[in-house]
Amino acid sequence: MPGPWDQDPEKSFQRGPLVIPGAYTARMTHQGVVSEKTFEIKIDPRLAEVNVGLDDLKAQSNLLEEIIALENASKRVLSGIKKNKKELRKLGKTDKIDQPQVIESELIMQEGVYMQPMLSNQFAYLRSMLSFSDQQPGHGAYKRLQYLKTVWKGIAYRPNGSELSDFPIVTGDGFED
Hints:
Number of strands: 2
Helix content: 40-55%
Shape: flat
Structural class: mainly alpha
Distance between the termini: 22 Å
Low-confidence stretches: 168-177
């Protein structure tokens, strides 16, 4: 599973989670010739010492997949908001920039010292906490994700009618949804 999308192609889809133990096939095509090699990733035997098994690693992978999907969504919305603000400035409609700017400020940490990490930053932090070792996800990780999903829904669906759908969402291929 790849890491999250990023507006910068150099950063996009990097730092995905570790693979789950199991059978995999590597496929390479060169000048029309396809070569395949099947191999197996085995579970680290040291994990048994700390009671981490295959089910725990599958739970970790599923949790990371959900976090990455939310991180992707927040990053794509941010990209759409930036594009929207640029277009509004071009059209001289600077009075209309407040709405996307408020949403942007809730999604991404502002520049400065000791600034509060906002939603997109918190998705990235939670992903990084779970990505770098084989582990059983703790109750705190699930609880944090639930909280972040609630915050995301509050940002995505405003009672005043301004929804994220008001802004173009930029996909990884550069096209708008």
